[in-house]
Amino acid sequence: MLRRSALRLLVTLAIFVAMGLLPASASAWVELTVARDDIRLDVGRDGKARVEHRVLLLVSGGPLKSLSLRGVDADAEIEPGAYVIAEKDDKAGNIEVAEPVQITKKTADTGTPGVSRNDLDMTLGDKGLGRGRYVLVVRYGTDLLATGALAREGATAALRWMGPSWEHGLDATRAVFSFPVAPTEPRADGAPVEPGDAADDPGFVSTVTRKGTIDQIELVRLYASQGERVLWAVRVDARALDGGPLEVSTAAPPPADGRPRATTAPAMGLEIWLPVGFALFVLVAGLVVIQGSEIRRRASDRGVATRPLVPLPILARACLASAALLGGAWLVYSARAMLGGALLSASFVAFVWHLPSKARHEARPPGKWLPVRLGEIFGRPPVAPAGVFHLDGRRGRVLVALVLALVAAGSYLASRRSLDIAVAVLCLGLPLCALFVTGGRRALPVDLAADPVPLLHAIALRVQRARSEVRLVPRIRLPEGRADSDEVRLAVLPPDPAAGLRAVEVATGFAVGPGGYVLLPEILLRFEHGSPCAELARGLECSARRAPGRKLDERVLVFTPKLPTARLTAELVLALLERVSQPRAKQSSASPASATQDPRARKPARRVAPPETRTAA
Known about the structure:
30% of the residues lie in helices and 29% in strands. The chain is built from 15 helices and 24 strands. The chain has helices spanning 2-21, 87-92, 144-147, 270-301, 314-335, 338-352, 374-378, 394-415, 419-429, 434-437, 453-466, 532-537, 566-579, 584-589, 592-597; strands spanning 30-43, 48-61, 66-70, 77-78, 83-86, 99-109, 116-124, 132-143, 150-153, 156-162, 172-180, 187-188, 204-211, 214-221, 231-237, 307-308, 354-355, 367-371, 471-479, 487-493, 501-513, 516-528, 545-548, 554-559. Strands 1, 2, 3, 4, 5, 6, 7, 8, 11, 13 and 14 form an eleven-stranded mixed β-sheet that branches.
């Protein structure tokens, strides 16, 4: 009995000793849930990236002393300063209470021959993590170019980066990719990729933001299964990566339908941009020189000098205008300076704009007014100024419409690729329209013998359409000793004028403003002093101004329409004709006896032929 008791005592002691020698971790129950993994990759122009993992750990039981990050980049260089902190302290910014984390990089076997995996074993503080919510922060560097994760495909670069895997999966994971700013924004890769890529998985949500000199694209994956490594696919403008040449990627698999994939032409370098830019500079400068030469030629025909807004020689203005236009488009396209580029492109207008030429003030020599045929004045087509850089001719209007159509089509097609390119096209094309707007007919002094003809023709047509029985007589003024006239007017006479009416003349003056010279029609009512027509015109004096007549017994009232248009001028002419015509009531009340006594009453009324066939008396 003694031996059995001693044996039982020895067995009991051995069990207690064995339990005391077991490791502490085996005596604790731990449950770990990785709720979220927020990844951030800051990619530099040389293709190197800084990777940051912010992992949310939910610990039950404990303590949790170690953790493995499975599947990191093969060339990962661990940065010092990894730490773990309680979630509430992390939100409050109490970084001083964080626990340091010791990281060891190792190579693990995946079970597939020739395929290995790189893991990070992390020791979470001295005592481990108890029950609670913690944030684990780990950073390391990698060379995306060297590992093949980043490769050029035409004018863009494709980034295919594989994230780590977690043993129990993830409820949500997010990756933020930061690139240097480029004309084209980064986007989730929409090319055909392997199953599970960001372009094929509907669980991905992407958001693009621009902050100063940084372009950021955020991809969110709503769920990651157990042991899954998420493949993040992003496409970025190759101009954001100028640290070195990028090799053309050949690792992309062919499409599922077996058809050959369309290739993209490589991005243009300085060897192409420089000749293209120089050619555009010469082209724009040449257009400015041609436009300036045409304006100078038209001004010399009128005997005046041009007045450019920027008083510089034409070659200097052409070079400055071309540099401003191309420089503004370059600022919008490359530097993304929208306001500065638009203002610089708009300064192109200042270098090509011309102010109205100053008219010569000379005393008019005496002359005679001569009536002419209607066909001699209104039958000739108007002569358009020479050249194409003006809107007075058909060629200029066609060219402006063509330029606007090309700019609209180019900006629309460019907007489907990038808003920056569309704005650059607008800044390059719209200022060119200023070449056709300035320096036209309005910028030259008015020639009263030719410029009023279209306006007088329109007035004559409206008057004749309203009252076909009126008489229209164009008159020209011929100075003494000269063969060319210096002014043209239109005389309008009613069929039954009041006694003493000389004529109702439509003359034109002009005024000059910032947009050029403007024709101002005037209506001159000429009548004899003391005549019945003077009595009829007495009620009109408050609406007109007086002017000297050609003879001592002649009085003149000058009327001005509210607007210098053909319609209002014709309506005012018709109103004046109605006032200075002989009253019809007196004509109808005349007795037959008086008609027989006055031989002039037996003469038939004279009918005026249409303007196409009648001649001036």
